[in-house]
Write a structure and sequence with these properties.
By secondary structure, the chain is of the alpha+beta class. Helix content is 21%, strand content 18%. It has helices at 6-9, 56-64, 77-87, 97-103, 125-131, and strands spanning 11-12, 18-19, 30-33, 44-47, 72-73, 138-143, 154-159, 165-168, 180-181. Strands 1-2-9-5 form a four-stranded antiparallel sheet. Strands 6-7-8 form a three-stranded antiparallel sheet, with helices on one face.
Length: 182
């Protein structure tokens, strides 16, 4: 992840922000507070270097606690909706192909919430590979609500054989993060 080239290599959209040319990957181990929704303010969550899939609570905490590169943030539902209009092609073989090519999105897979292994050690790739499901079938990227509420959780989803869309998901699913810069 070379954040110094993100503005230069990113894609400026008609909606305004620049989309980072690659997914956010945690570069060092960090401790987040306020991720555990049990109500205990002293509860902390350790996220390990190399982490690629995040719950929405983790993604929001990373943003709120300043762990994203300066000036970069999670995209909104409205921005992603504009990308669908701007970049969705008519290709019947791969309808998600245009948005994937233009924004550099990949079919990165995701992790189901029932697996509860988000804070894995990246050195144990064999175990991690078995936990990433639907790899090469779809990619999911967290979005935040424009109004600042968290009543609903959304992701931009790209597929191998279907049109891209914005869908709701359980906030405990592990999805990729693609940041934007105003």
């Amino acid at each position: 992840m070379n954040i110094f080239r993100w503005i230069e290599d990113g894609k400026r959209t008609q909606a305004g922000p620049i989309v980072a040319p690659e997914n956010f990957v945690l570069e060092k181990e960090i401790i987040l507070t306020g991720v555990d929704k049990s109500g205990d303010p002293d509860e902390a969550t350790i996220l390990h270097a190399g982490k690629e899939f995040f719950t929405l609570d983790e993604a929001e905490a990373l943003q709120e606690q300043g762990y994203f590169p300066e000036g970069w943030r999670l995209p909104t539902v409205t921005e992603a909706g504009a990308w669908l209009t701007e970049f969705t092609g008519k290709n019947l073989v791969n309808p998600s192909g245009k948005i994937m090519a233009q924004l550099g999105l990949k079919l990165d897979g995701y992790i189901y919430p029932s697996m509860r292994i988000y804070n894995y050690c990246p050195t144990d790739r064999e175990i991690v590979a078995s936990l990433v499901v639907d790899k090469m079938i779809e990619g999911r990227f967290w979005l935040i609500n424009d109004d600042g509420t968290n009543n609903y959780t959304y992701s931009l989803v790209v597929y191998m054989t279907k049109k891209p869309e914005i869908r709701t998901f359980n906030r405990s699913c592990g999805h990729s993060i693609r940041l934007v810069h105003d």
